[in-house]
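call fold(seq) -> tokens
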Amino acid sequence: MKRGLLFKESSLTQMPPMTVKESPLLSSLACVNEACESYGQSDRKNTAAMMAVEMSLERFVTEGYGKLLAYPSEEDTIAQKRLAWIKAQGVQSIHSYGPKPIGGFKTLGLGYSGLVLRVSSASQRLALKLRRSDAPNASFAFEAEAIATANQFQVGPQLISHNDDCLLMEYLPGPKFIDWLHSPAATFEQTWAIIHPLLDQAFHLDQAGLDHGDLRCVTEHVHIETTAPGDRFVLRPVVIDFGKASRDRRPANVTTLTQGLFLSTTIARTISSRFSGTVLDCQNEPRRSQLIHLLRNYKNNPCQKTHQTLLNFLKP
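ret:
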């Protein structure tokens, strides 16, 4: 592997002592409910994942973590180019934070096309998605376009800046939807208050002619942003990861999301189990067949009327 001043020969796993700061998210979620899990880990692993170590860009580099910017190649020229761009966007620090450790450094996520880190500018915390050097897509150009389109309808994380190899977006504090569903906070009323805007977001994407491409996998692509303005908590469902989005396919966001929420998936079984016998339980007949019929009607004529008919069927 090509190396330069950006990398030290020390291993990524040789992490020196660091000052650990408790994440505000961990404190705030604990205030609401200590049992509320995030990222689907055990309590011990979850607590560890929620502890943040903030490092300046210089420290991130000198301690040998700079190679992550070019993951998995560790190539110096790639990492230096990305580091220069990150600095130009006003990013000042990178956090070792999240459920996915790579060489001793915690990350928010690692997928087939990108690695996601939590970073900070002078004024806000952000999420930085770095294109993997072995990714099948040559650039993030279309993913950035897809996010920007979604943002026009208040869908998805807010896109801050981008180039071919990096996406800088708003950071979303809070758990994945599947983990939130397992918490006591997920009451019947609150669950519908999450599902309703999610279905509306999917409808907006359909109307925009943009197919997300992976909404049936709700466990990975819906995040519950948790904020605490004043003395109350505000929950906002956010569709994430537009890496498989397309304008070439016929949009099927409402149908795939509804299937992911209510028909033969992990989340569908969870919802059915938690709210058995209610309108949200569509795993069993006759509601299963009725829901499928409504989805077919929507698929044949995706408009406000068929979308509203679907909502009326599901709402309490």
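The two ends are 58 Å apart (CA to CA).
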